[in-house]
Structure prediction request, 370 residues.
Amino acid sequence: MDQKSNLRLKQAHERYAVAVERQARTRAAAAPAIERRSHRRAAMVRLAVVAAVVVAAVLLGIGWWAHSAADSLSGDLADQRAAQSAAEKAIVTMLTADPADASSYVRNVLTVTTGDQQIRIKGASGELEALIAAQSAPATGQVLSSGVAASDGAGTTVLVIAQTTTPELVGGAAGQNRVGVAMTMERVGDQWLVAQTKAVS
Amino acid sequence: MKKVIAYLEKPIGMIGGSVRLLIAAVVFVAALVFCLGSLDGRTADAAIVDARASLESKAGAVLADVFSVDARSWSNDRETARSLVAPPLSTASGRALAGPPPGGATSVNWVPQNVAVTWADDRAGEALIVVNVTVTSRSGHAESRVKSVQAFYTRSGDQWLLSGLEELQ
Prediction:
């Protein structure tokens, strides 16, 4: 009984030793694969981070370009609107005159003009005052419609149709009660001023 | 190259890896949102700028093609004209755009001189146009006069159709 038990115990010890050895061998054999897998996982995480950062940088670039393009487009549109409304106000100033106070007409017109137009008004101030003083009633004007005809770096051309008592003040033919004027507006500081006018109808 | 691979393969813990991936995802999503938002803002303004430029280039030609007519080719001219008008003008001018030049004239010729856009968007627009109208009578006598008109347009795709007209002068 004792001998038998001893033998079984010994056999069990041997089997156990073999199993332990086999486990150690299997683990040793699997070690490179496990390590490779952990390396691969680490590399995948880092590559994913790099890819996300690169794509994000590209998206930021596109977004920044679109942002500045939108700024410049809305700036252009705002400039056109500002030039158009300044032209409407300026044409009313140019068509409004009181025969009793002819000198203030030239003063008012000079404040809405610049460049060549201003030089012309200054040069013709005597004739303009005489023309206004000769009117039997105050000259008036109101805008019927306006639109932007052209817009570039040099300025914005606004076409204005106005109803007026005195079209000759802006180069129109005397006797008609409506006049069309192409007005070239230039930006001076934060104001849009009349740089040139041309009666077109 | 080996160094890069060695760096990439340096083991990362579970938490370290998750935090890195999370930060990368947040950065990516933020960049995507900014990009789409900016593109959207640009599209709206670009549409108006395009509409204004497109109307400025076509308004005069459309007006001229609708109202110019020659006695020798009036049937073709009127057919062109009818293809370029939209309601309410198309209903109001149905009869006028069906016959030869009125009053026994041999031709009516509209030549735009100045075109200015009052406003325009992707569906419609308005232009102020100064136009020289020449009417030639059967005797060969031509009479010209300058008119200012406010023209109303509707847009269908790339085409602008004349939908109304108001004579200002």
Remarks:
- Residues 78-199 of chain A form a domain with the Nuclear Transport Factor 2; Chain: A, fold (CATH 3.10.450.230).
